[in-house]
Write a structure and sequence with these properties.
The complex is a heterodimer of chains A (97) and B (168). With 97 residues, chain A is mainly alpha-helical. Chain A is 78% helix and 0% strand. Chain A is built from four helices and no strands. Chain A has helices at residues 3-23, 27-51, 57-81, 90-94. The longest helix of chain A has 25 residues, at 27-51. Chain B has seven helices and two strands; from the N terminus they run H-H-H-E-E-H-H-H-H. Chain B is elongated. The chains are: A mainly alpha (97), B mainly alpha (168).
Amino acid sequence: MMFVAGIAGVLVGLACAVYRASAGPTPFDRLLAANAIGTSSILLLALFGFVTGRPEFLDIGITYALLNMIAVLAVLKFFRYGALGHVQDPEQDRDPE
Amino acid sequence: MEVLLDLLSWIALALGGFFYAVGGIGIVRMPDVFTRMHAASVSETLGTGLLVLGMVLQAGFTLVAAKLLIIFFMLMIVAPVSSHALARAALHEGRLPLLVNAKNWLVETDPVSLFPELETRLRQPLSSEQVAGETDPQEGTLPARPTGGYAYALEGDGAPSDDGEAPR
């Protein structure tokens, strides 16, 4: 089975990404590693479904891909603005109170 | 024909696993955020593409192959967007890329010193801030006040301790 070779390669990449996520000096290293972990988890799901003969795991992979995109953009917005909501002008903030 | 397809998919799966492992090793060993992004893009393009190609060749013309291609295109959309946003956030926070200088040493280099036209782009606010500032013109026809308030808000953002009342 050649799927096992693909799974081995993806597991090596996953282990390296986990190391970088735990030891990365800057938050951007950790975020890059988190993105890599998400991608490799999607590929692991697909390959594992092929190994076990149940390709229905691909639906979970599609969901993980969508979640991965939203998570990365949300965390980057948090780094930039310090908040996840809409950034308002201070003058507009003062009006209702 | 079956044997040929099997052979091609096995080659693609083995090469995909190899490139994925290479990208992972690059993520560990590279010295910098930007070079680590370069290493991660290897596993995100070549590794993912070859692994998905191998699985599609095994699946044939079925719904499974269509789902695999959907996943592949989704990853191909996500990877450039997330790496662009990551590099831009790192540059805006002040991280400098490691570049080779004249003595062949790796030093932290300000990219503005190499490409002066980057000055106007990097020092400008991001477009979402401009959108937040441009919500004013609908309530009035004063062109001077929104731009003045906008520049004032930017200065307050850069040096928050100047006027203690402005940020909150």
